[in-house]
Amino acid sequence: MIQVTLIAAITLIVVPLPAIQQQFGLSPAELALLSAGYGLSFGGLLLVGGRLTDRFGARRMFVAGLAVFGGTSLLGGLAAAHVVVLAARFTQGVGAAMVAPAAVALVTHLYPDSARRSRAFAVWGTLSITGAVAGTMLSGLIASVGSWRWTFLIPAVIATGVLAGFRRLPAASAQPASQLGVLDGTLVTAGLVALSYGVLEGRLVVIGSSVLVLVGFLVRQVHAADPLLPIQLLMDRGRGAALLVIWLTAAASTVGTFLLSLYFQQIQGRSSAMTSVAFLPFLLILTTAPLSAHLTRRHGVRRVTVLGLLLAATSMLLLSRIQVDSPYGGVVLAALALFPLGAGLAFSGATVTAMSRVPAERSGVAGGLVNTAMEVGPTVGLALLLALATARTEALRDDGLATAAATTGGYAAAFTVTALAFAITATAVAFTFRKEEQQ
């Protein structure tokens, strides 16, 4: 439940953003920062959250992070000023960065048997896309019938309910306290936040600076006696491929819902409520949790992950055929039905691989890596593909196409590139995971 809520909080605010803008008189830049704030602090601090989990214990960090997440969600819902809403949005992400790695570590402790743990992580892998879908659908409904404040109050209520039962959680042991890597944590957080901001704003100097900061972080990890991020976790080829799958699938999920929301409302003139209804096929993600666990047990992680990537590629390829007047019952509906199935399978297989062969004392850091890929993917991926869609739209306008047709052509180009990325990744995963199985 809480993993779904953490991810849903990213997209819950999307459709009500115009209402927030109108109430506080925000500029487009201020609105973009408000939208991205949660993901920036969430993604940037996940590795620090993983280290804290390994040092102080999963249950302790889960409870502390959930208290921060729930408390700041309530603050955002009751805020009377824009600056308070913005601060609440960023601090929500801080709490989420504490909770997510702790939750992954708790799953490791709840399922010490490797076979049961793999099945649990197969189910876990579907929860993120479930959260994104739930957030998107609730976002439209909230915009239609309620106040934007419910985008903060709903997570607060769920966090309170989960905290009420925290004593049932296992008291996972903490590791001996050593250096917490404050400088390393600052470097990776600043690097990831700067990278996300630079890509969103298209500022090459910021992007270049962020890359230098992240390289500096990696150099320190190689030479550190007690690194924040043990490099051997990244040197594993299977884990690296799995993190790429998670990054790409999370990015595609965000890009798909964002562009289709604009397409439905601005090109085809649907209301926010009807846009939410249009995304109902995404509820098929709910079927992939048991399906993924069963298929992984019967056919192996490699086949399940590759199948998921190919289904997602097919979905994106179908969306690349959209026109201004495309009927919902054609390629759009088929794509919306295929994508949650493919994304769920890909997430499941990749999560199992990313968390395999991880020592118990490093489960928090490994969980932080998984969630970092999941959070950075939407920010960076959306920015890159939006830039591509915009460039294609402008080129089509220069060729004389009407605005609606040119804009739709830009969206189609972004979907085409995403389909190609899924196909290439499926090939790489098939090769890499096969090598891992043979070792």
UniProtKB/TrEMBL annotation:
Listed GO CC annotations: plasma membrane
Compartments reported by the entry: Cell membrane
Alphabetized InterPro entries for the sequence: MFS, MFS_dom, MFS_trans_sf
MF GO annotations: transmembrane transporter activity
Key word Transmembrane present: yes
Membrane-crossing residue ranges in chain numbering: 31-50, 62-88, 94-111, 123-142, 148-166, 178-197, 203-220, 241-265, 271-292, 304-322, 328-347, 368-391, 411-433
Membrane topology summary: Multi-pass membrane protein
Segments forming domain Major facilitator superfamily (MFS) profile: 1-437
Coarse class of the protein's main subcellular location: membrane
Superkingdom of the source species: Bacteria
Keywords annotated in UniProt: Membrane, Transmembrane, Transmembrane helix, Transport
Pfam families associated with the record: MFS_1
Protein's name according to its UniProt entry: MFS transporter
Organism, as annotated: Phytoactinopolyspora alkaliphila
